Every structure is written in C-alpha cells, then in structure tokens.
Backbone:
C-alpha cells in the first residue's frame, strides 16, 4: 500500500498543534503563578451573581435563589450579601454574539465573588444553533474553576461519595480545538499539567482529611492513556504521601463504573479524584442512585472565583412539552448548600442540607416527578423553606 502525499495537511495540523502547545504552556504559567485563595471573611460584601441559563434553567435557578435569599435575609438587609442577576447567558444571546460567553456577560461575572448558574444549552454539530463552545466549559476555563466537586449520597444504601473532577484540563482543555487533519482523520488533544493535577489532588485529600472520609480513590485509564493519565496517577500518588492517615487506592475508570453498581463494594468508596472526562461520565451514573441527575449539584471552585450549578443540562424536551415548571430544583438546591459553605455560612449550609434530606429522603411530603403527577418546582422550594422554618 502506498501512502498519499499529505505534506500540506500535516503542515497545517502542525501549525494548529503548535498553537495549542503555546496556549497551554501559557496557561500552565498563569495557573502556577496565581494560587491565592479569596478570603471571604475579609470582604465587606459578598456578591452572588445569578445566571438563569436556558431551558429549565430559569425555573430551577429562581427557586434556588428564593431559598438562598430566605437563608441570607439578615445579611442582605445589612448589605453584606448582594444577589446580582446577570442576563445574557442564554443560547440566543450567545449565538447572536457567536461567543460561548459574550464579553459583557464575562465582565459582569468577573465583578462577582461566586456565581449561581442554571444549565445552559451546549450546541452540538447538527443543532439549529451555531456550534459555539459550551458556556459551562468556557466559564470553568475563563475563571479557572479547577475543582468540580460533586457529592452523591443515598443514606439508606450506605452511599456517601464525593467526586473531585479536574475541571480545566484533560479532554476538555482544548476540546473545541481538535484537528480534522484530512477528511478521513481527526485528532483531539488531552492535556495534563503538574500544577493542574496537584491542585485537584490536594483539594480531594484536604476534603477527605477535614471531613474524616478516610479514603481517596484515584481513577484513571493510565494503562492506555499513558502520558496524561499516567502523569495524573503519579502526581495523585505523590500528593497522597502527605496524607498518611488516608487510605489511597487507584482504579481504572471502566471497572469503577462497574463497581458503582456492585452493592457489596460500592459503599467502601468515599472520595474520588479523577480527570475531567471520566468525572463527567461517572458523576451522571452516580447521581442516578440518588434519584437522577436532577437531584445532584456541583461546585466549580477556583482560587478567586467559584460557580455553583446543577450537574445536568437544560432539558429542552421538558420545555418543549410544557413541563419546565415541574423541573426538579434539588440539583440547584444541593449546589446552593455548597455555595453557602464556600462563602462561609456553614450553619446555613448544614440547615439547608438537613432540610433537603428531609424533603428528598425521609418525609417526602411532596415529590417531584417532572410532570403534573408531582409537585411543581416552586411548590417544592416552598416545601424546603417550610422545612427550614420548622427546623426539622
Ligand atoms: C456537566 C455537563 C457539561 C460537561 C456539559 C453540559 C458541557 O455534562 O457539567 O457534567 O460536559 O462538563
Ligand atoms: Mg456531565
């Protein structure tokens, strides 16, 4: 077999690869230089940006904002907390600007300390929208929100997992800059840096230490993806040595997905640390045990900024079928627990978490079914507030 002459294509691909390398080396220098955490206790006022997003986003975000405003009423009155609604993160506005996050939205986001964000539509090839980058991914990268923390708990089944998904690297770092080298060959890139891995590993181990979780599992596919996953595994193991009281093990992603449904083994997992794409996939699976992705929240934490959101998408089908008012606010409410904790109101975070456990797991006086057979999103938010008020 002869191989054709691809010199021109290879040269063009090399140029794109070079641009990727330069931008990633620059990013690596930037993240290595900026490691100072924002100290919320030193702020006169905490600004919470609120972006409703698309699809069911506005409904579930408004419900979460209402509950947060109830919990932070005193601080709002005293001018110590401000909610700032930021419009413009809709797919219509993003498409009209041809930007994942339009510049004016980005500058408003950067004036906040933390952000509560509803799901946003991510166009894919063939959709009616231009194929712009995901707003989530763009925000995680632009604000350097490196730790995606996703708790999943099912108390009656003994499940208590916290996933630390690396949030700015892996297959997502340059996910929209892969190269179609020829019509027959496409290549994507996967990125791992030392700093990017050290910081997510430290976050996971620090969390495990503080919360006495006892165990951290490192999840990769280092037997196949040798350069990037291999590096991720090595670095996590090195960081683990600073936490001798915590048991550390490592697993491949494929067998991990299987073990999560193994009732005898799965309860031994506590904290997971894993690259971006595996974290994306496995947290949807994990959330299913808790009642589905509609029940799971996600914190996206960086040194300076943090963003709190649902783990799921904008559910356009629910909106098309007129069911958006029956959307489950629990994902955004679980995210709100983490927001409260992050900005220093641990007492309020604990109260909300307890109320959600009552409403979702034990009392269940109202149930969300996603349709008119169950409660509406607003009714459920009221139920959570009543439960809070009753101190149950
Ligand atoms: C998530 C979502 C996003 C992701 C999508 C909507 C871009 O699936 O937060 O898990 O892939 O990270
Ligand atoms: Mg996902």
Residues:
């Amino acid at each position: 077999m002869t191989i054709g002459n691809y010199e021109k294509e290879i040269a063009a691909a090399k140029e794109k690869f070079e641009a990727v390398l330069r931008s990633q080396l620059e990013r690596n220098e930037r993240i290595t230089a900026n490691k100072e955490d924002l100290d919320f206790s030193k702020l006169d006022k905490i600004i919470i940006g609120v972006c409703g997003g698309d699809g069911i986003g506005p409904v579930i975000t408004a419900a979460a904002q209402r509950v947060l405003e109830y919990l932070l009423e005193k601080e709002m009155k005293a001018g110590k907390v401000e909610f700032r609604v930021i419009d413009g993160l809709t797919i219509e506005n993003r498409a009209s600007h041809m930007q994942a996050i339009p510049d004016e939205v980005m500058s408003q986001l950067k004036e906040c300390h933390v952000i509560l964000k509803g799901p946003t539509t991510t166009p894919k090839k063939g959709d009616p929208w231009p194929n712009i980058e995901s707003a989530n991914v763009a925000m995680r990268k632009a604000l350097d929100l490196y730790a995606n923390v996703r708790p999943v708990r099912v108390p009656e089944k003994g499940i208590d997992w916290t996933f630390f998904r690396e949030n700015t690297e892996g297959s997502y770092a340059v996910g929209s800059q892969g190269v179609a080298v020829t019509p027959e060959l496409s290549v994507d890139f996967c990125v791992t840096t030392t700093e990017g891995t050290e910081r997510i590993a430290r976050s996971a181990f620090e969390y495990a230490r503080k919360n006495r979780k006892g165990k951290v599992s490192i999840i990769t596919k280092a037997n196949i993806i040798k350069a990037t996953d291999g590096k991720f595994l090595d670095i996590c193991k090195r960081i683990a040595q600073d936490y001798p009281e915590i048991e550390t093990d490592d697993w491949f992603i494929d067998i991990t997905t299987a073990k999560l449904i193994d009732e005898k083994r799965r309860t031994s997992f506590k904290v997971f640390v894993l690259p971006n794409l595996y974290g994306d996939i496995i947290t949807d699976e994990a959330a299913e045990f808790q009642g589905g992705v509609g029940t799971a929240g996600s914190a996206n934490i960086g040194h300076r900024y943090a963003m709190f959101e649902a783990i799921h998408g904008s559910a356009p089908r629910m909106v098309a079928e007129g069911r958006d008012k029956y959307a489950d606010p629990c994902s955004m409410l679980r995210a709100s627990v983490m927001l409260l904790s992050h900005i220093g109101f641990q007492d309020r975070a604990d109260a909300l978490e307890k109320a959600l456990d009552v409403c979702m797991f034990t009392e269940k006086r109202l149930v969300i079914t996603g349709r008119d057979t169950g409660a509406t999103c607003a009714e459920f938010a009221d139920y959570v507030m009543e439960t809070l008020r009753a101190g149950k």
In short: The mean pLDDT is 96. The pocket of magnesium ion (ligand 2) is lined by residues 280, 284, 311 (CB under 6 Å). Residues 38-123+133-145+302-392 form a domain with the Isopropylmalate Dehydrogenase fold (CATH 3.40.718.10). The longest helix spans residues 7-33.
